[in-house]
Amino acid sequence: MDHLVLTVIAQDQPGLVERVAQCISEHGGNWLESRMSRMAGQFAGILRVDVPLAAHAGLVSALEALQAQGIRVQVAAGGDAPTSVWQPIRLELVGNDRPGIVRDITRLLSSQGVNLESLNTEVVPAPMSGELLFQAQALLGVPQSLSLEHLQGLLESLADDLMVELKLRVEE
Fold first, then answer.
1. Checking CA distances to 109, which of 19, 71, 124, 167 falls within 20 to 30 Å?
2. Which of 134, 103, 133, 132 minimizes the C-alpha distance to 121?
């Protein structure tokens, strides 16, 4: 079996995921995991599938043919899992929305060798004032060589500059 990672984007419509799933199934593939969402009228997703090596080319062709239905699929070969040992840390952030929050946080994390495993963000109205709040939840892969106290200190300093609240906790 060959692991493939697919990204899908299309105008949101009923049956879109079913058409992708049908292509995978018709080529003996197995849908392993996915993250999918509708945003601003578009549907976007990323998924990992297993497909027999002999069916790989046929599946890629079938997925490319979905373009005629307005479904764009990009295919990438699955890679090996990282050999580094990471400590999973959950990051939660909330603050008044403004441009640059994601850039500044990810710049700091990257400079410390921290891998961003997953990131979910949204902008929502504050309960009482209606001002826009930026919220983020992330799973971080922190190198064993990086002290959590050091990372916490760096993030707290940046959080003060950005005027956001930030929490870190060890993921079980």
1. 124
2. 134
List residues bridging with 54 in a β-sheet: none
Q: What is the pLDDT of residues 61-112, one digit of tens each?
A: 999 999 999 999 999 988 776 666 889 999 999 999 999 999 999 999 999 9
Q: Which CATH class is domain 2-77?
A: alpha beta
Residues 135 and 121: beta-carbon distance below 8 Å = yes
Q: Where are the domains of the chain?
A: 2-77, 86-170
Domains 2-77 and 86-170 alike in fold: yes
The secondary structure of residue 146, as a DSSP letter, is S
For 13-18, what is the mean pLDDT?
94
Largest CA distance in the chain: 58
Tell the burial category of 98 from Cβ atoms under 10 Å away from its Cβ (0-12, 13-18, 19+).
exposed
Condensed to tens digits (0 to 9), the pLDDT of residues 31-55 reads: 999 999 999 999 999 999 999 999 9
CATH number of 86-170: 3.30.70.260
Is the full-model pTM beyond 0.85? Answer: no
